[in-house]
Each structure stands twice: as C-alpha cells, then as structure tokens.
Amino acid sequence: MGMLQGLRSHGGHLGAVAGFAGYAACWTVLRRTAGTPVPGAPGPWDLLLTGTATFRLSRLIGKATVTRPLRAPFTEVESAGAPAELNESPREEPGRKTVGELISCPFCLSVWIVTTFTGAQTMWPRATRTTGALTALTVADALQFAHSALSRRAGH
After folding, report:
1. Is the pLDDT score of 133 beyond 90?
2. Cβ contact 131:113 at 8 Å
3. What HEC string does 128-155 produce?
4. Are 52 and 134 in contact (CB under 8 A)?
C-alpha cells in the first residue's frame, strides 16, 4: 500500500512524463513519415544558437511579466524577480499544481522547448534558423544589463 500511495502523490508528475514521452514520440513519427533525408549532426554554432534560444524562450514563458496571463490559471505570484520577471509558485488546486510547476520553471520548460526546436530543425532546417532571433534577444538583454550597470557605476 505504501508504494501505491507514493505513486498516487506523484500522479501529476507521472502524467507530465507520459505527456512528454508522447510529445517526443509524435516528433519521431513525424520525422519518420517525412520522406526527406535526416539532416546531419548539428554543428557547434547550431548548438549554441539552439541552447541560447531555449534559455531565452524558457525565461520568456516561465518568468516574464508580459506572459503572466499564460501562467495565471496555474500559478500565484510570490514576488518580483529579475528585471521584468516574476517569482511564482504553483497553485495547490488539483489539476493545476503540476502544470504550474512546469510552466513557471525555466528548467522544466527548457526540456519541452529544446525538444520542439530539435524536432522542428530536423523537419524544416531552413525555416527554424529563427533560433537566431531569440539568441539576438538574449544578447540584447545582456547588453541592457551591462549598460545599466555601467550607468550606475558612472553615477547616472
């Protein structure tokens, strides 16, 4: 009975894992039925672009104040976070806690996002070069932080 009780308490997480497995399987089926050659292994530049884009999009979805309406049904605001970000916790209501954990955690979102980017890149390599746009946004954010820090240091 103890083992079953432990499984029941993790039902939402088991559902999320099953959902992810199904999502990844859909990409696999889509890739196999495409009838086009599988692209070669990604190069270092592709990995850097995809990693940076995944980082930025996961923070945009999981933390940004502008995307709060997407998270609102599943999370509660705890406090302000980094600039233009919020710290949130999942709602304790049944059916919302696991989604709240996933949608407010950039680390959790990254797994889904990188799977999406990777699957899409195997299907539409030219069209998915837009990861560069999210990479550029990440660089722009870093420059904004650097500019603010330098301005404070200069007394402006």
Report:
1. no
2. no
3. HHHHHHHHHHHHHHHHHHHHHHHHHHCC
4. yes
| List of residues 6+ apart from 58 with CB closer than 8 A | 106, 107, 109, 110, 113
Question: For residue 89, which amino acid is it?
Answer: S
Q: Would you state the pLDDT for residue 90?
A: 95
Q: What percent of the chain has pLDDT over 70?
A: 94
User: What does each C-alpha distance from 91 to 6, 37, 46, 103 come to in angstroms?
Assistant: 21, 45, 37, 12
Residue 54 has which token pair?
């995944």
Q: Running DSSP on this structure, what letter comes out for residue 130?
A: G
Question: What is residue 91's predicted lDDT score, i.e. its pLDDT?
Answer: 94
Select from 56, 54, 48, 51 the least CA-distant residue to 144.
56
Read off the pLDDT of residues 55-110 as tens digits, 9 standing for 90 and up: 999 999 999 999 999 999 999 999 999 989 999 999 998 889 999 999 999 999 99
How far is Cα of residue 57 from the mean position of the Cα atoms in its chain?
6
* 112 token code pair: 């889904």
pLDDT at 88: 97
d(CA 53, CA 124): 17
Residue 8 DSSP SS3: helix
